[in-house]
Amino acid sequence: MPSKTIVDVIKYTEMLSPSEMIKWALRNVREVLDVLNISYAAIPEYREMVFYCNLFLIGKLRVEQMRQKSLLINEKALLEKDEAKANLLRAFGYTLTTSDIKQHALQASEYALKALLSANVSAETVQKMANKQKADLETLACFIVAVDK
């Protein structure tokens, strides 16, 4: 069952590590690209984000390197004329900075959803996707807590 309030969602982020939050954000961004029917190969920033995240997850990159890459992607977002693509770029940037501030995964997912709205995907579809993301986060947090006990 999806979380009912933002307080619930924040509570779940506190239970999870930055790495788990990065994986959650990556999955959310990928689902949005699928809905928009965008090839992963078509957006070099997406490929770079996934590459950097994977390197971070295996301990080959530091937080500072993730932040630097995020800044470069966010600069591109500022220059982008297409609102849907600009929101996707912001989602990529926030996914990277989740390495430092795990709540940034929430902003990454929010910008990914804004990309859907900017691309004229129905509000109902976007709401369903938001509910699924929250439910996935809740399930992940509950699973991690159960395993840790």
Helix content: over 70%
Strand element count: 0
Distance between the termini: 22 Å
Q: Name the helix and strand elements from N-terminus to C-terminus, one letter apiece.
A: HHHHHHH
Beta-strand share of residues: under 5%
In round numbers, the mean pLDDT is 91
Shape: globular
Largest sheet: none
Radius of gyration: 15 Å
Unreliable segments of 5+ consecutive residues:
none
Number of helices: 7
User: Helix/strand/pairing class, anyone?
Assistant: mainly alpha
Describe what this molecule looks like in 3D:
- The protein has 149 residues and is an all-alpha fold.
- It has seven helices and no strands.
- It has helices at residues 6-15, 18-35, 44-57, 63-79, 83-97, 104-118, 123-148.
- The radius of gyration is 15 Å and the shape is globular.
Question: What attributes does this structure have?
Answer:
149 residues; mainly alpha; 7 helices; 77% helix; globular
